[in-house]
Amino acid sequence: MERKEHFSRKRLAILEALKGTTCHPTADWVYGQLKPQYPDLSLGTVYRNLKRFCESGQAMSVGVIAGYERFDGNPAPHAHLVCRQCGAVVDVCGLPISMEELGKLSAMTGCQVESASITLKGLCAACVKDGKTA
Amino acid sequence: MERKEHFSRKRLAILEALKGTTCHPTADWVYGQLKPQYPDLSLGTVYRNLKRFCESGQAMSVGVIAGYERFDGNPAPHAHLVCRQCGAVVDVCGLPISMEELGKLSAMTGCQVESASITLKGLCAACVKDGKTA
DNA sequence: TCAAAAATAAGAATGATTGCTACTTTACAA
DNA sequence: TTGTAAAGTAGCAATCATTCTTATTTTTGA
User: Fold this and answer.
1) Which of the four CATH numbers 3.30.420.40, 3.40.1170.60, 3.30.450.20, 1.10.10.10 does domain B7-75 have?
2) I want to staple B123 with a disulfide (CB 3.0 to 4.6 A). Which of A30, A104, A112, B30 is the partner?
3) Which residues fall inside 7 Å of strand C, measured at CB?
4) CATH architecture observed for domain A77-134
5) Residue A81 and residue A119: Cα distance in Å, rounded?
6) What is the DSSP letter of A82?
7) How does pLDDT run along chain A (134 residues), one tens digit per residue?
8) What separation, in Å, do the N-terminal and C-terminal C-alpha atoms of chain B show?
């Protein structure tokens, strides 16, 4: 018998804040977003729930960027670009890696590849427009 | 007039320790390797030089894995697999991403992609052999 | 409404990384 | 070699994102 998953109001609010943005926020950003509406929200709660969402597959971690872990409410595999100018993390579609290729890699190397993440570095579209191409 | 790069004995030893392993070590690992031979070596020196090598292109960071930054003495682009069982970081050749594709991505998205890093998750060959496939 | 289980707040603790200052080492010229 | 200015380092102290702890509150299911 499957135990029903609990969803407190705050947990739900954290998940919605995460799903409702494409900025790949830090825990602290989510905390700042929700604090006005939930004045007694604790940063620890945000951390705990973000971790939980990643473990359950409802979200994923983009990794630690400039000292902060960045989260993504979209768990579907896709690439990210980290802008070296402004620090933004933006989604990049057209993921040029397939599960087939991962299977081939597994066979070739003796490893068992289960997922792949692609992180690009460069300039985001906004910074390119601003002429910060150099 | 180009200023000649200084290479103290300790800096050189740190670079050689990094180049001489494929384990993608942490700063602390390098420190532990060199401490017997250089008893007055400071962990801060290891950190500072590893950072310097990354900035100068002599090495690269694999990113923060399980709370520790991992470094790679091979700055040529290649993928890494992080074993979810034993935590090992292993090189994966046959990098399925080309600079051409990066150029296309740049054109499509308006970003300026300058480099790409691929990180795989799964089991390393050793853990697969140990039957920890599940 | 009630009791057990789960979740949270608040703040302390952790620990990798970086900063700081006085001391060494190095490079280079005379 | 020897002097000296610049670069590098040791040894801690400080930082600060993240995790842990405990008492309290909320939620769930009956």
Assistant:
1) 1.10.10.10
2) A112
3) A 3, 5-6, 8, 10-11, 38, 40-45, 48-49; B 3-4, 6-9, 26-28, 43-44, 47, 51, 64, 67-69
4) 2-Layer Sandwich (3.30)
5) 6
6) E
7) 344 566 899 999 999 999 999 999 999 999 999 999 999 999 999 999 999 999 999 999 999 999 999 999 999 989 999 999 999 999 998 766 777 888 888 888 899 999 999 999 999 999 999 875 65
8) 60
